[in-house]
Write the structure tokens for this entry.
Amino acid sequence: MILQETKNYWKVKINEITEKKSTNQDSEDQLKQIKDRIKKWEKDVLEPWTDNSADHNKIYQTTSDINVKNTYTMADVDNLSQNLFPGDFPYTRGPYPNMYRGKKWTMRMFSGFGTPEDTNKRLKYLIENGQTGLSIAFDMPTLYGYDADNKRSIGEVGKCGCNISSLKDMEILFNEIPLRDVSTSMTINAPASILTAMYASVAIKNNIPINELRGTVQTDILKEYIAQKEWTYPPKNHMRIIRDMMEYCTKEMPKWNYISISGYHIREAGSNAVQELAFTLANGFTYLELGKQAGLKIEEFAPRLSFFFNSTMNFFEEIAKFRAARRIWATVLKEKYGVEDNKALILRFHTQTSGASLTWQQPMNNIVRTAIEALAAVLGGTQSLHTNSYDEAWALPTEEAVKVALRTQQIIAEETGVTSTVDPLGGSYYLECLTNELEEGAYRYFDKIEKIGGVINAIEEGYLQKEIAETAYRNQLQIEKEKEIIVGVNKYNETEEKPIKILKVDDKAQEIQIERLKKIKNERDNDKVKKTLANLRRTYENDEKNCMYDTLKAVQAYATLQEIVDVGRDVFGEWKEPQIF
């Protein structure tokens, strides 16, 4: 069924889901028998049992305010027969038919601190301990596009990630790491085009064809405006740069995932599961439209879009969220966009356990939290996973804490048996019902966003930011009123906390980076730098030209990160978000 020409696709889908709720796949006689048995069981068994129990008047809900029943039966699920097989449309049960029996998820630990030398050493340590993919964290100056010697960078260089101010830093970061053999993920957004150009330049210097590079760069600027707040230019200008990246990477770096559409930060900002699901996929549809504007076919570029989700402590809701995400993405691409290639319909995602769930009180409890969240991600069918370390509410993790986090994944993979069969919780009445509820909630948000005029209008009006802020406020009230229990925080407290060993980043990182930057500026061909930056400016001013080629030339001339970003600041201006109260 192709609904491509339907004026209000989202409303059609909401009506379709609502109708399914009222018409179950089973015959009316079977349904009547089941419902009669449920009523009898509730009257004869459940009510006498619960009349005097603590939960008699208690309402159970998920984080998305979905009411949870005492018991679920086949009467609660309308579409079991539509989601029978993994690797089959709409991919609810998994993107691949044999999932982890064929290949386990990539264990990709997020890491980065101090100088490029410091992070290079940590990456090698993780590879030696069995990590199967690299994931780089960058510091605040890098994320905002400032060099280490900028006054705004003082005190922040290397503190929450690795500092990168020029191609020289990137060369050191990946020194003696075989780029041909590893998959690298870089969590960078506003200056993503520049960091991608740096990574490609390192490969070129090592005689590695860039069309062989595997990995992901986050690039998702929409979620920056919504949640993370690390932006540079106004939305419409920045989307032009992403459009150019999509076009460039599709042609030149076909194995490179050039956008990782991220719900992680949306969830960490305080949203619930439905909002994370809806806002992330709405951003994804916006990037689809952007690719079409660049003249690309969705079948051509959709397989290079990946997603990044959070896994929090509401175990079953998280698993349902992952399943709903795959189903919605495949269904919308097929029905609304007319995509027929099955490879383009598959939603692939990375998961990170929740940083917001970690507590500085009783930090060893965080090992348990992370294990539960990681298990939910695996049962939800993640393609790669980062597990947070128990000490991250205090500081960047120590090597010992990182090893425990990595071992958590390895224990799940090797000792629990969850990889033996695909989607082992599929068919659970509760899980299937939750999957359907989350799907419906997402479609209702898509309809609201479309009425506002799309994601960018919703950002500029502050709608998405306000929705998250209101949810975050309500959640905090629940914790303060002890209606939501956080062990060791508002219940089971301890009066004395034992100190733990934490990682301290050497303050010399800033000194080293500034000195290196000074040396680069003295030794490079500054006339060449000026020329490449002038060419980039002209390209930015001409919407018809692709800016990636001139970005690459500026990077290879050792123009610094900020010098390149500042060209864009001059041409496009800077974004100032609306005030939300």
The longest strand covers residues 305-311. The CA atoms of residues 227 and 266 lie 5 Å apart. Strands lie at 106-111, 133-136, 183-186, 214-217, 256-257, 259-262, 305-311, 349-353, 384-386. The two ends are 43 Å apart (CA to CA).
